[in-house]
Design a protein that fits this description.
Largest sheet: 7 strands, mixed
Mean pLDDT: 84
Oligomer: single chain
Number of strands: 7
Distance between the termini: 10 Å
Low-confidence stretches: 210-214
Radius of gyration: 17 Å
Shape: globular
Order of helices and strands: HEHEHEHEHEHEHHEH
């Protein structure tokens, strides 16, 4: 498999953003410097601060959502924007500064052999650690998805991902907007549609702004919700795909 779309530069970097005025300009600038051949779209997910204005001033295109839909809804908007404007590759980057823009090229390189490439925090690069119940949730989800995808996947909840042409077309039509849809359910969707999913090691940085939501109680709730999201994704009817999705 060789994705000529990556070589041709038809790449869209999508930043889902909710009240990220303190970091969005920096992230947009870093992405534009690192991947100058890509376009940048910030999906303002119902922010009440200056996220949209600052993103536009930094040189990004901006799609504003009237209400907060969550990352899944924001990314669905990004994929539909990509298809409508002729982009064949979409890279998801968080607007809070945790994802290193220098790693985007590694994701794009991975698309030479895959339809979806996950930037993994646990694949041997950097020293990012998950702790407590969240660590066990990651292990369980990684084990299940490794079996489903028939390859080792260690970080299935990563928000740092690249999608090639077949995945972009599929996600534009069916990307789930529910809680954890952007991670757990979207990967089930890709695997059941016959897409190739792989991961590459990346470094995760400290948040540039805001507060992490991790705590033992929240991590335990996360584990339960992730398991439920996985179960629902597995029992849902497989989406129909047209001939263009298998090209």
């Amino acid at each position: 498999m060789r994705n000529t779309a990556v070589e041709a530069g038809r790449i869209l970097i999508v930043l889902p953003a909710l009240n990220e005025q303190d970091s969005v300009s920096t992230v947009v600038n870093q992405v534009r410097e690192t991947v100058p051949d890509a376009a940048v779209l910030v999906v303002d997910d119902g922010s009440v601060d200056r996220t949209a204005q600052l993103a536009r001033a930094a040189g990004a295109e901006v799609a504003r959502l009237a209400v907060n839909l969550g990352v899944g809804g924001a990314m669905r908007t990004g994929f539909r924007y990509a298809v409508a404007h002729g982009y064949d590759v979409v890279v998801q980057v968080d607007a809070d500064g945790q994802h290193d823009a220098d790693e985007v090229r590694a994701l794009l390189d991975g698309l030479a052999e895959a339809d979806v490439v996950i930037g993994s925090r646990f694949a041997g690069k950097g020293n990012y650690k998950a702790r407590g119940p969240r660590r066990y949730a990651m292990w369980v989800l990684g084990f299940v998805f490794s079996r489903l995808a028939r390859t080792r996947l260690s970080d299935v909840t990563s928000g740092f991902k690249a999608a090639g042409p077949r995945a972009v077309r599929l996600f534009a039509r069916y990307y789930p907007a529910e809680y954890l849809g952007d991670t757990v359910e979207s990967l089930v969707l890709a695997i059941r549609a016959g897409l190739v999913v792989r991961e590459v090691p990346v470094v995760m940085r400290e948040r540039a702004s805001g507060k992490p939501s991790q705590s033992p109680i929240r991590a335990a709730i996360y584990l339960g919700r992730a398991g439920l999201a996985l179960l629902l994704a597995l029992v849902r009817r497989r989406p129909a795909t047209d001939s263009s999705d298998s090209a």
